[in-house]
Design goal:
Length: 255
């Protein structure tokens, strides 16, 4: 009879104040914490707890290792930044679970949400995601770039605001320039775009410009990018998107 369990926990965007109480409690009960090096570094070492930090891009190996330990009776927490279900470890664990032995399905597996980068960033500037929006990972590690371009076109045409994760890495510097080109042509030059870097960390930097003035260098892998819809506007130092579609009567809103 095993008492092992596996919990996949989101650590939020960086500030310790933004780690939920249930995530703290899971880590306090864990025998093992597994994750990408910078996230595991955030965990306070203590006796009885083994930290397993691994490099990026080995998500399914890391997930398999976590499942193996839980199956042996260990209490394992897999950590992600932000929310574990947003471009992070939760799906990797379920991929490993699906590929693994049938009896892993009897393990107690729990996903604990965290504050994802786009929501932490949106809160810092006002309410840019107050109407419909789409979250898109701009990395082409797990999908072809052509599909990303197609999605940008279609989402822009649909009039949705957007949040981009992994917007620009040193290994693919031209792609984000191309993404901006597409956005200008589909959404228009006046659409607001916010570059939010290291949100909730001491060196947080947030800049909002029009698509006309946006340059690729404004983004890197520590930045989440929010593109407004055609109605997204500035009032003073705030950026917000009205809840209603253009022309829709505000009096008909329910909440
Ligand atoms: N699971 C994470 C996302 C992992 S993908 C979440 O829910 O937030 C990694 C990307 O997330 C980064 O390239 C960046 O786009 C974004 N990101 C994560 N933390 C961030 C932070 N503190 N500030 C700005 N962007 C962040």
């Amino acid at each position: 009879m095993t008492t092992g369990w596996l919990t996949i926990a989101g650590l939020g965007p960086g500030d310790e104040m933004l780690v939920t109480q249930e995530v703290r409690e899971a880590i306090a009960q864990a025998t093992d914490v597994v994750g990408y090096i910078p996230y595991v570094k955030r965990i306070e070492p203590r006796s009885g707890l083994t930290l397993h930090a691994s490099d990026n891009r080995v998500e399914v190996d890391r997930a398999t290792h976590a499942l193996e330990m839980a199956a042996r009776g260990q209490r394992v927490v897999v950590v992600s930044s932000g929310d574990p279900g947003v471009f992070a470890m939760a799906s990797a664990v379920f991929e490993a679970l699906e590929a693994g032995p049938q009896d892993w399905l009897d393990l107690t597996i729990t996903v604990l949400p965290g504050i994802t980068a786009m929501l932490a960033a949106a809160a810092q500037i006002g309410a840019p995601l107050g109407h419909d929006f789409a979250a898109i990972n701009l990395s082409d590690n797990l999908k072809p770039w052509a599909l990303i371009e197609e999605r940008l076109q279609l989402v822009g045409q649909a009039g949705l605001a957007m949040a981009f994760y992994n917007p620009r890495s040193a290994s693919r510097p031209h792609q984000f320039a191309r993404a901006l080109e597409i956005l200008r042509s589909v959404c228009g030059d006046d659409t607001l775009i916010t570059f939010a870097r290291n949100v909730s960390k001491p060196d947080q930097k947030i800049v909002t410009v029009s698509l006309r003035d946006a340059t690729p260098e404004m983004a890197d892998m520590r930045t989440v990018v929010i593109v407004g819809n055609r109605d997204t506007r500035r009032i003073g130092r705030y950026v917000y998107t009205p809840r209603f579609a253009p022309g829709f009567e505000t009096s008909s809103l329910k909440d």
